[in-house]
């Protein structure tokens, strides 16, 4: 039986991949966690899954955890400043342990130029892909578009939207082929199940539709039964406004970077790999908005 190890198994994406794979009794799913006492790690162990401990910052722990693994589902690190070294550690450990196949959750991008607003974030994905390609380990690269969940992160809670009645982001007329985390996890699981059919392939996992934040404001208006305006401010105005609400500088910087990327068309989808892999269209942004913002407001 093929042994598959899922990194980031206690996180949002990795845990969902595990949930999909639990339904398949032809592979042995093993989960990697930094802390075996994490709530999700303990739950997986109680369900009979093997839990191995390993930290991207500790190469020896990774090499030990990767022993005997046929397929490694490698979830990219979320610490932007440390991510490149962490990824080098993962790849080196996979090589040392004799991992048979790496499936890496990368990010889609329109350009790899240093002048791109997103270069500081996307460059680590680009470099990681190159390291994997030169590792001599068979690979599959999954270039994810932006999570639909980013929408809620950018816009805030239902209560905040009802208060401001405004989508305030410098994204211009840019469109994004958003994809839910669930859809990306399903695609990852389907590839893992037939890993030998995806050797040395690169897939761009885009949503089935390209949506602007102006259209998202329309969806919000329908769901909330309130007119939600869309305003695309200048960058100085955007940063000044967020600062006045005591938003941390690093959050403002990240939101500005991704907003500029969206405005520049960095996340416009031009491929249908996701649909082919999961056998259907992706979950629509309209449905996602309804699920997130359609629930009743909790009383104080």
Commentary on this structure:
The chain is globular. The strands form 3 sheets. The protein has a 7-stranded parallel β-sheet, sandwiched between helices. Strands 7-11 form a two-stranded parallel ribbon. Strands 8-10 form a two-stranded antiparallel sheet. The protein has 2 domains: 2-144, 3-Layer(aba) Sandwich (Rossmann fold), CATH 3.40.50.720; 149-175 and 208-269 and 283-293, UDP-galactose 4-epimerase, domain 1. The protein is built from 13 helices and 11 strands. By secondary structure, the chain is α/β, with parallel strands linked by helices. The protein starts with a strand and ends in a 7-residue tail after the last helix. The mean pLDDT is 93.
List keywords for this structure.
seven-stranded parallel beta sheet, about 300 residues, alpha/beta, globular, Rossmann fold, 2 domains, 13 helices
In brief, what are we looking at here?
By secondary structure, this protein is of the alpha/beta class. It is built from 13 helices and eleven strands.
Topology:
Layout: E1 2-6, H1 12-21, E2 27-33, H2 39-46, E3 50-53, H3 59-65, E4 71-75, H4 83-97, E5 102-107, H5 119-133, E6 139-144, H6 149-155, H7 158-164, E7 166-168, E8 175-176, H8 181-193, E9 201-205, E10 211-212, H9 213-224, E11 229-231, H10 235-244, H11 249-263, H12 273-278, H13 285-293
Parallel strand pairs: 1-2, 1-4, 2-3, 4-5, 5-6, 6-9, 7-11
Antiparallel strand pairs: 8-10
Helix pairs in contact: 1-8, 3-4, 4-5, 9-13, 10-11
